[in-house]
Amino acid sequence: AGHIFSSICFFISLVMFNSIKYPEDKWIYRIAAILALIIGFVPNEQVEPLDACYIRENTSIALNYIHLGAAIVFFILLAYLSYFRFTMSGSPDLSDEKIKRNKIYKICGLIMILSMVVILIYWIWSPIGWERFKPIFLGETIMLVAFSIAWLVKGQYWVKDPLA
Predict the structure, then answer these.
(1) Whether 97 contacts 157, CB under 8 Å
(2) Residue 123 contacts residue 131 (beta carbons within 8 Å)
(3) How far apart are CA 25 and CA 2, in angstroms?
(4) Which end of the chain is more exposed for a tag (fewer CB within 10 A), N or C?
(5) For 155-162, which contacts have Cβ atoms below 8 Å and span 24 or more sequence positions?
(6) Rounded to an integer, what distance in angstroms lies between the CA atom of residue 118 and that of residue 135?
(7) Can you list the alpha helix ranges (DSSP code H) found in the chain?
(8) Span 71-83, pLDDT tens digits
């Protein structure tokens, strides 16, 4: 699953570099794209290599912090895009479809923030029994799925606006 996760990070990076519809968001997308590449290329440190999310082994604490920092900023940017940028509108009058889409964007943003909080709780306190659920990997996966849903709605693959 780690190789699949890294591949998804590479794909997200490629998409983010090439699909900037709004010029004012260009730098947010570019930074997120670079961070996605760092997450994929700089593996996190793993005690059990079979559980690792990496394309090569990492035994460096410094690389682990680079991976961690990139992941934190990357997921914060995705939550920001979903909750704040995707909900923006050029018109004061919102269609019913835009109102529905805004709800989806905000729910996806909140899911990403909640996932980050759960990961933070696990990382700080490591509650007994949580490790069997792989909370960091699960939380990152949930955040990617939430952003993917928001992205598909933003691209109007779901909840299309007939006036747009």
Answers:
(1) no
(2) no
(3) 30
(4) C
(5) 158/104, 159/97, 159/100, 159/101, 159/104, 160/97, 161/95, 161/97, 161/98, 161/101, 162/97
(6) 8
(7) 2-18, 26-41, 61-80, 96-125, 135-154
(8) 999 999 999 999 9
